[in-house]
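Field: COMPLEX_INPUT
Field: COMPONENT_COUNT = two
Field: RESIDUE_TOTAL = 672
Field: MODE = joint
Values follow.
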Amino acid sequence: MAQGLKVAVVGATGMVGAEMLRVLEQRAFPVAELVPVASARSAGKTVTFNGAEHTVVEIAPEVFEGVDLALFSAGGGTSREWAPIAASKGALVVDNSSAFRSDPEVPLIVPEVNPEAAADRPKGIIANPNCSTIQMVVALKPLHDEARLKRVVVATYQAISGSGATAVAAFEAQEQAIARGGEVDKDKLSGQLSRNLLMHWKPDPETGYQEEELKMVSETRKIFGDPAIAVSPTAVRVPVVTAHSEAITVETHAPITAERARELLSQAEGIEVVDDLSQGIYPQPIDAAGQDPVYVGRIREDVGNPGGIQMWVVSDNLRKGAALNAVQIAETVLLK
Amino acid sequence: MAQGLKVAVVGATGMVGAEMLRVLEQRAFPVAELVPVASARSAGKTVTFNGAEHTVVEIAPEVFEGVDLALFSAGGGTSREWAPIAASKGALVVDNSSAFRSDPEVPLIVPEVNPEAAADRPKGIIANPNCSTIQMVVALKPLHDEARLKRVVVATYQAISGSGATAVAAFEAQEQAIARGGEVDKDKLSGQLSRNLLMHWKPDPETGYQEEELKMVSETRKIFGDPAIAVSPTAVRVPVVTAHSEAITVETHAPITAERARELLSQAEGIEVVDDLSQGIYPQPIDAAGQDPVYVGRIREDVGNPGGIQMWVVSDNLRKGAALNAVQIAETVLLK
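Field: COMPLEX_OUTPUT
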């Protein structure tokens, strides 16, 4: 099977779709045939993969015939409608939307954290977690294994590329307007992001949280398989194009020293420790953009909670936060 | 005495100094005579106050003769050397640097929080807290009065104007370079701030914290007079020009509901509650810049800690975070 797979990428013309193609190429994923899929609006465009042009086809049941792997990144509505169809035709579906993440019959996988949960997938669908959750759980995993997570307080600093290419263009237009002293168009981003901060995710009126924040709570519990883990999140959009950052405060059931945390994180899969503050060395979004690792720095004993740890976690939201993790899930299931 | 005071502003040509002059003017502080003071480098420049030009004088013992109020904002070194001299000549010194903040003989005052502590000032000096501390303690005060603070986890989103005019110019130059696709000069800000995040405050090698973060710990305890309050801080510089933002997670000894917290915060001095997320309404730096209040929004019951509160606090770092608070201290002592 690993000799060559038929792979469909749904949402191939979007930012995450394009990153999926790059990741498949860079990791030499055994693609025998590529089927780039999109809505009617983008069908007919071409994408380049492994040096060849491929015409994007409009989504329809027949495009999934004989497909081994279908990577979905075209929004929740498309996934809800089409992922079951692709799965019914025998494809492994890895879905980057939030459509199935809380479905008890759909595993939610970060390969460094819970690869074993991918085995049981009654619907043939595996969900890729939210970008801000993925990098957090990768960084929390070694601490959880050592001392069991009790509570996590997290404040995010999220890049605009998570909202897609149109949002990035709107942000750049705002920057250009400010640079030339012109009027800033605030409509496309529900506000001004350049030189400002936004909290523009869908609100949950009952709790006062943004849905983006509640995802970090429920997804973290599902991935670790521990509904007792407490998560206190704040999600903030910052004027950064790519790579999300997170200020994370961790409380575990057993105390951990900073030295031990640094040792555990240094040895953990998928993590690169970048931590020498006295030399001005800590993870930065511009360094993480385009890279695969989850970068962890500022590892320190919590001055406000003896035995706890604070750290700063930065990763490319389009790669580990989306495309890379999706392809790694496919590798875990199909290539191992 | 309130009929007209002789007021010296040390560091009158800096960003905070300029803001002090604006605040004195806007609040109609009874200035009979203004003495703008600076280093030799800036002496001879002029500043405008109440419509008149004033020549900046070089700092020297005699400039403080007959001065009733000396507002210092020219760095810790200048304060350490000159604040005691100004005080010895009878001036009330309000110092915006960190030089005296931890001195047990110097009160550290936020008028909405601990005005009574200003009365006992054996050195004739009152310290103005760090910008990130001021807005936080104003927002915490009503919750502390109601239920006593136990622990605070705070992640900051700090504007570059806190670093002064040269830093703002360097940031704007970085923005311009990116807008025209040129090379970004990273030297002046210890890194690239445009489209990026920095943690460039002085590190404390022993704890792994930045000094900016440790200030939030010690100053919060001193202002509330409660060394048991635990503070877990992360300080981050964001590509915003003016107004600091803070994601604050609060644990009190008695539980508080979001409704009660909103009620307490709405009635508190110096605070404006801006909190209707379902309508996209929450505090934003661009709205807070140039304004006096500490804006509080996103007030919600902590999904990770029953009885706790999370909130989002935004305020102009040059005004309430520096100049306004300093002038309010002077008002508390000299005009009430």
